[in-house]
Amino acid sequence: MTDPDRSDRYRPRLAGVLASAAGLLLAACAASEPAPAPTPAAKPPALAAERPAGGPGGTEPDALPEPAERAAAPDARVQPARLGPPLTPEDPQAARRLIRRHGFEPQDVGLLVTDLAGRELAAHNATQAFIPASVAKLPTAVAALELLGGDHRFTTRMAATAAPRGGRLDGDLVLVGGGDPLLGADGLVHLCRDLRRAGVRKVAGRFLYDASLYQERPAIRDDQPMTAGYNPGVSALSVNFNRLRVRWGTGQPSDPRAWTVPPVPSVDLSLDRRRPRGRESGAWLPAGADGRWQLSTGARGYGQDWLPLKDPARVAAEATRQVCQRLGVELPAPEPGRAPDGAATLAAHPGPPLHETVRAMLRYSNNLVAELTGLAAGRALTGQRIGLSQSAIAVSQWYERTLPKTDWARFDPGNHSGLNADARMTPAQLAAILRFAHDARYGRAGRTLIELLPTVGLDGGLGRRLQTPDTAFAVFAKTGTMNFVSGLAGYLPTESGRGRVFAIFVNDKRLRRAYDADPGRTGWHRQAASWGSRAKDLEAALVRLWTDPGRIREPAPTAMLQRSE
């Protein structure tokens, strides 16, 4: 299931109809329950967004006591938001009343709104720790921009141990990963063309690939499904977001086949025509004892999918070999290795400036881009080859030193993407980071964080949430979604020029723990979708409360404006 708050598109026709029929909506909302959210459309393959995560269970020391009558069973009926008198930001209980109206308990929600000087405008559980989901990408973005600079570029290189002579390289050629999160086919073409311009037509020595800049992992999280596209391997040499297109079928059920595009020797596929119970056609199954990927195609004889790579550096090298072959440079089969000291760079491909990488990360919420960007920040801090958890600790300690007036005791992101049900942060901590970054300008282009965030209006990064005329260009924010976890944080510019920062977390940790303990239980999908829709409705209602103090708030539950989220 794709992150629902990032895969939708704004529908002006629906918004217009709703705006012209507000009276009818009031009656309809009061009398009926919003329909559960349908599964959203898949994202374009260029930047796959986060998926709901199923982390391990365990103790939750920051959880507040919960009412005894709250059940963790699936299929619980979800009630619509309850109407009441209009709310205004001057009402000190406005946020708490909205929380109740949307069916949440007070301990489920944490929020904070401040002006840029840090003066509190609204708060509820602001110092309690919550699961942030992909809102955790905001601390990653700010730390990377501050430590590396907006103009930093991740560079992938081709280094050689000898000089080419007569088109032949008698030494070794090494493909050196620089941690570029956006390396794609264009970068491989760049490298191979420059290699040819450097006089290389054939490599007689070895073709090595070097991903030693960071510690490699076969997946972002070991407790997530290894076949999930949002959980690929992590490597300093990553290409195409560490996903590989797979196609299968010949139209003849008696002769099924599967293949990758491009074909890479290290990815071995097999088909399983038996459709496992509860799995959709085209679902990846865990690799068999022989290490081959298995694909359950059910009754369907053909199709395509994206395979998350678990040995991404090797696949990147195999793809580079094929591109170079097409462009007239013959390379031997790749082998893992290290570039020796003194190896001369024959070709180099710099990625885009970091501010562009960060904007893509925040808009599309790609987990791999966040982890590689965070690893670069962690390496800048430590100067060492470290892994995801060590890098996250280094960034957390940097925030403690940089913003000493903020209490960082419960700040524990765990990694850089938010794909971690054990991660914790408070609304107060996130608001402090947003205030810190507000006036900073990054790179020669002078980009600010507010420019890099998804925007309500022309930008689709916030899905359908708040996509109405009164909130256009009024909200610049990052979303976060996991099962029974939702968040929204960013900036609320005002006409007076005195902007605000806000952070909202909505968690049901009891349901989350129950889900983690048995993620395959029947009924979770519907309940999680309904819960997530209510959480997003609450976030939208709170933001509307804070964006335009002169308007009467909440003429109808916001579920009627974006009930398909």
TrEMBL record:
One family name in Pfam for this protein: Peptidase_S13
Ranges for region Disordered: 32-91
Keyword Protease: yes
Bias-annotated ranges (Low complexity): 44-53, 60-77
Keywords, comma-separated and alphabetical: Carboxypeptidase, Hydrolase, Protease, Signal
Gene3D superfamilies: D-Ala-D-Ala carboxypeptidase C, peptidase S13, DD-peptidase/beta-lactamase superfamily
One of the record's GO molecular function terms: carboxypeptidase activity
Signal peptide: 1-30
NCBIfam families: PBP4
Record-stated family: Belongs to the peptidase S13 family.
Identification of the protein by name: D-alanyl-D-alanine carboxypeptidase/D-alanyl-D-alanine-endopeptidase
Organism the protein comes from: Rhodovibrio sodomensis
Organismal lineage: Bacteria, Pseudomonadati, Pseudomonadota, Alphaproteobacteria, Rhodospirillales
Encoding gene (name): dacB
